[in-house]
Amino acid sequence: MIKTIEYIDGIVRMIDQTRLPVEKQFIDCRTIEEVGHAIKTMVIRGAPAIGVAAAMGASLGADSIEAASFEDFYHAFEEKCDRLGQSRPTAVNLAWAISRMKQTAQKNKSLPITQLKSRLKEEALTILTEDITTNQAMGQHGQTLIKDGNVVLTHCNAGALATAGYGTALGVVRAAANAGKNIKVLANETRPFLQGARLTTWELKEDGIPVKLITDNMCGFFMNKQEVDLVVVGADRIAANGDVANKIGTYMVAVLAKENNIPFYVAAPVSTLDLAITSGKGIPIEKRSSEEVTNINQKRISPEGIEAEHPAFDITYNHLISAIITENGIAYPPFTESLKALANQK
């Protein structure tokens, strides 16, 4: 299994996903600030992986604090965590993991500071382990929606690289393959950052799962030719009504799937649910550098002086979604009821 991120001897080690698939290189983060920079620059990306990185970063931040009392410690810890929380705005797992680390600190305020720091590290490692277990459970639920011989279309990378391991959408694909189903994958390249071309195809090739790469504007062609049986994507935040924020272009894929009567599934852990937001209209959309649109691998593909827009995510509305796969089961419309039930399930 691909190890996207590890916590070894006070170092958070992660695969530098900006260098894949050309080279597999690791980056060592020794401070919470270095973790925040890795998240912001997409060295590590994918909502669940960002959450795990944030928890580990919070632990590094805690280790750097010198304080005689819990009050002094927590004041510094909260400031560091809040700065980390500004790294990327759309993925809710970032805020979820930081909140969980803050709660852990508060619950253990009676411990000596050295023991409190150890407890925070334990919590970060627990979040890592839980993420892998969650993805595997999600995969088992989701693979029941895939039939032998199906062709699955994906968008962006929602695999092991987007999590601590195994994956969300690709976890569903992996589980189907592990169940002995003969499946194939069509991977959208996912402009402008090319997560599908660089990361999804690399993962599936590593696992020996048949995959073909297509450009984003080809998916409607293959759907219309009835060469796609279902779509499975991940999510960075899911509103209470089932509206989903995911990588830019997901909305387009969902509309095409609806037009061609193809099931459109979303795979995401319960931690990605944001039931405090009633609809997708309330989800903040990150805007990234226009240079990621005008350049590929630091080579310009448009004339000098041309302006570009780069919303990193879009909203796929609930009426376009057939089901949402979580570790607690599969939610079907109406999502306001089914998602709440799964979120409350222990």
Write up what this structure looks like.
The two termini are 27 Å apart. The chain is globular, with a radius of gyration of 20 Å. Strand 12 and strand 13 (299-300) form a beta hairpin. The strands form 4 sheets. Strands 6-5-4-7-10-15-16 form a 7-stranded mixed sheet, sandwiched between helices. A 4-stranded mixed sheet has the order 11-8-9-14, with helices on one face. A 3-stranded antiparallel sheet has the order 1-2-3, covered by helices on one side. Helix content is 40%, strand content 17%. With 346 residues, it is an alpha/beta fold. The mean pLDDT is 96.
Helix count?
Answer: 11
- At CATH's second level, what is the architecture of the largest domain? 3-Layer(aba) Sandwich
Oligomeric state of the chains present here:
single chain
Shape: globular
Please tell me the total number of domains: 2
Main attributes of the structure:
seven-stranded mixed β-sheet, Rossmann fold, 40% helix, 346 residues, 17% strand, four-stranded mixed β-sheet, Four Helix Bundle (Hemerythrin (Met), subunit A), 16 strands, alpha/beta
